[in-house]
Write a structure and sequence with these properties.
Elements (H helix, E strand, L loop, with lengths): L1 H18 L27 E4 L2 E4 L6 E4 L1 H24 L6 H5 L1 H24 L2 E5 L6 E5 L6 H25 L13
Antiparallel strand pairs: 1-2, 2-3, 4-5
Helix pairs in contact: 2-4
Length: 189
Amino acid sequence: MEDAAAVARLGHEVAVARLGRREGGSRSGKGQRKKGFKIRKKKYRLCARDEQGAWACSEHRTMVKTTSLGREAILQVQKIIMVDYYCKLQKLGLVRWIAFGKQLHVINHLIDVINKLRRYKDRRLKCGLFYVSPHTKICDVVVHSRLYDMPLKEALTGSRFELKKREEILYITSLENQTSPSPLLYYRL
């Protein structure tokens, strides 16, 4: 009998130690302790990062956190799908349909997506590290960068040089659009 009581007491102490409680807790009227506090298990998620954000390394490969480049790529894919669908409907005479007037909010959503893309693109081009182009065969985008091909210092130097050249070209084209371009302008190249 004493052995059974000792085993029961030992089993109770192991259960209490497993739950993380040393002493205390509430007691029932018969002197037996209730179950201890519940401690949640810590869960860790293995993630991989790329230029579009952090992905969970699981079967479904869910996106945990996106970067601005990732959000721009998602919007770009949405734009490609919507514009393609809109062009197909326009060939079928979309403008003459009665339902066209009722569904203007969908077209306004497309315009909002295009405006968001313009803002992301302006920020990305100001930085000059990544370039996005549509994929030729599937409905997706391809990200190009100097960071993939060369070390960081060389990539940053090349992107700064490209930004300076782009600013000069934009400056020249803005002056050419004016009425009287200066002949000294072409010596800056």
